[in-house]
Amino acid sequence: MIGTGKGHGVHAEPVAGEAFADVRIEPLNHPLLKGQTIAAASVDTYAVRTIYLRALAVRQDQQGRGLGTALMIDAMRRGLAIADRMGDAAIVRDVLTGAQAVRRWAFTTQLGFRPLGDPNNPNRAFLPVADARATLG
């Protein structure tokens, strides 16, 4: 679910495009393929003027089809809409560690994010709102 604070959600619209003809997005922003959840994303806001992309996941057997990119772009657009209303300055996300960490960082940086440099969380990345607008066109 895309959250705008504690308990408040914004529902997703279907992802358009031929590549996603067999995918539909349910109200909780979980794309389904033949009735099975294959990806999910969520967005939260924090008092420090950032939009935090809380979760982004695509089932391993569905990776490489553009679902993660579509979800990330959708989440970034929703984050920008929230930033317009609240005056937020950046979009932030945590890049998971583990065997896929290098691939996850590559995915994140391709969308314009860069390391935040937080010594308490070296896996946190950020994207200034102005850069997000430029990335999304």
Mean pLDDT: 74
Reported for the largest beta sheet, the result is: 5 strands, mixed
CATH architecture: 3-Layer(aba) Sandwich
Uncertain residue ranges = 1-28
Number of strands: 10
Commentary on this structure:
- The chain contains three helices and ten strands.
- The protein is of the alpha+beta class and 137 residues long.
- The chain has a single domain, classed as Gcn5-related N-acetyltransferase (GNAT) (Aminopeptidase, 3-Layer(aba) Sandwich).
- A hairpin with a 3-residue loop joins β6 and β7 (50-58).
- α1 (67-86) packs across α3 (129-136).
- 30% of the residues are buried.
Write the topology of this structure:
Layout: E1 2-3, E2 9-10, E3 23-25, E4 31-33, E5 36-37, E6 39-46, E7 50-58, H1 67-86, E8 90-94, H2 101-110, E9 114-115, E10 124-128, H3 129-136
Parallel strand pairs: 7-8
Antiparallel strand pairs: 1-2, 3-4, 4-5, 6-7, 8-10, 9-10
Helix pairs in contact: 1-3
Please give a quick description of this structure:
By secondary structure, this protein is an alpha+beta fold. The chain has helices at residues 67-86, 101-110, 129-136; strands spanning 2-3, 9-10, 23-25, 31-33, 36-37, 39-46, 50-58, 90-94, 114-115, 124-128.
What tags apply to this protein structure?
137 residues; alpha+beta; Aminopeptidase; 5-stranded mixed β-sheet; 3-stranded antiparallel β-sheet; 3 helices; 10 strands; 28% helix; 30% strand; disordered N terminus
